[in-house]
Amino acid sequence: MAPLCHSEIGELRECVARTEDRAKLQQELQKKQAARDAEERWIEWEDAHKKAREQQEAEKIKHAREREAQHVAHEEKKALQLAEKEKQAVEHATKHQQSGLQAPASKHRRKDSPTKDPYCGEPIQPSKRGSKSSTSLPSKALGSLAEKSTVDIPLNSFLSTPRISRSGRNIRPSTHLFS
């Protein structure tokens, strides 16, 4: 190979410098491109996570609405059942009022036949049945009491008068009855 002249050496130097500049420019371009790619990936990641969060929030809202709808439906069902029970109770009470029965216990007993007291086995007199204030006083004593005013009745005779419960039992036991 022949020796190079000054001009050729200068051209070679310029060529090497240009090549080095190109390599530096290429590296800078690669760095900028890598930074742009990283920024795009970050934006894509943020968008994906934002969409996922929005979707989760939408699912939460949807489930909350479904739960609320189920709760409302359950409450409506309970209210309807309660209204139906009340309606049946009113119908039942109306039916009993129309048929003349005053208490469920009296529907199994005929008014003209005495039954036995469930507590002591003694027959219940028809006069005792059906009224709360009936007593076992003889009719003579009742007549004499009816003639007196309530102020004239001595306390001892009032306390000695037995008081009969609805079941026919003596609520206020007396030590002695009228003779």
UniProtKB/TrEMBL annotation:
Compositional bias per record (Polar residues), positions renumbered to this chain: 157-179
Record region (Disordered): 47-179
Biased composition (Basic and acidic residues): 47-94
Superkingdom per UniProt: Eukaryota
Protein name, entry field: Uncharacterized protein
